[in-house]
Amino acid sequence: AVLSMALGLSILASFTLPLSTFLGAFMTILLVFGIVKKMGRFFITHFVLAGVMINAFFSSLTLLILFLSDTRLRGMMVWLMGDLGHTPASTLIWLFPMAGIGVVLLWREAYCLNILSLGDEQALSLGIPVSRFRTRIFFYASTLTGIAIAGGGIIGFVGLVIPHCLRLILRQDYRILLPTSCLAGGAFLMAADTLSRIILTDTELPVGVLTSMLGAPFFLWLLMKERRR
Fold it and tell me: Which DSSP letter does residue 6 get?
C-alpha cells in the first residue's frame, strides 16, 4: 500500500489501495506458509518466527520507501499510524461488501474451528482435513486484514485485545466469538477514534497511535494474568 502511494497509483482509482493491501496480505501469507513448509511440521512457533522475520524485512523496505519519498510522505505516515478520517467514500463502497462476505465465510467455519481448538489429532479423527482447513482459514483472515488495513491503515491491537477480553467473558465458542468480536471491535474502534479527536485541542491524534498505546500494556497484562493462572 505504501508503495502504491509512493508511485501515485492510489490516486488513479478508488480500488488501487485496497487491491494493493490484498496483494500484500496474500503475498505475506504465502511467504509465511512457504517458510513454515520448509521448516517441516506446522508448529505455531514456526508461524510466529516466520511472521517476525517477514515483518522485519518488509518494515525495512517500508522505511526505505518513506526515505526516498518526499511529496507524499505525510499521507503515507498518517496511513501507517492508522487513521479513519482520510478514507474516501469511493473506497468504502468496495470494502463493505467484501468485508461482509469475508465475515460470513469465516463464521461458516466456526464449528470446525471449535473442533480444531481441541487439537489436530482430534480434528483429524472427526474427519476434518486439518491442513487444507487451516490454509483456508489463514486466507480468509489475511483477506479480512487487507480489507481493514485498506480502510483505515495500520490500527494495531484491536484484533488482539478484543477477542481475548471476550474469551474471559464468553464461552470458547467461535460461533459466538466471531460475530461478537466484530461488533465489539468496531465499537471499541469508534470509541478510540472519538477519544483521539478530542484528546488534543489543536490537532487530531491518529487512532492507531492511541490503540497501540492502550492495547500494548493491556495485552501484556492479559498474557501475564494467563500465565499466572
Answer: H
Cell (9 digits) for 40: 517441516
The rounded distance, in Å, linking the Cα atoms of 97 and 177 is 21
CA–CA gap between residue 109 and residue 133 (Å, rounded): 9
Measured torsion, CA atoms of residues 155, 113, 43, 56, in degrees rounded to the nearest 10:
-10
Q: Give yes or no for residue 100 having a pLDDT over 70.
A: yes
215's CB contacts (< 8 A; 6+ apart) are: 156, 157, 158, 160, 161
Average pLDDT over residues 107-135: 89
Residue 49's alpha-carbon distances to 13, 39, 46, 55, in angstroms, are 36, 11, 5, 10
d(CA 215, CA 78): 19
Helix axes 174-198, 89-107, angle to 10 degrees: 150
Ranked by mean pLDDT, the top range of 16-20, 79-83, 93-97, 184-188 is 184-188
- Residue tagged 467514500 (cell numbers): 89
What is the pTM assigned to this prediction? 0.77
User: How far, in Å, CA of 167 to CA of 173, rounded?
Assistant: 9
> Residue with C-alpha cell 489475511?
142
**Are 182 and 103 in contact, with CB atoms under 8 Å apart?**
yes
Q: CA-to-CA distance for 214 and 161, rounded, in angstroms?
A: 10
Q: Which H or E run contains 183?
A: helix 174-198
Q: Residue 185, CB half-sphere, CA atoms under 13 Å: how many? A: 17
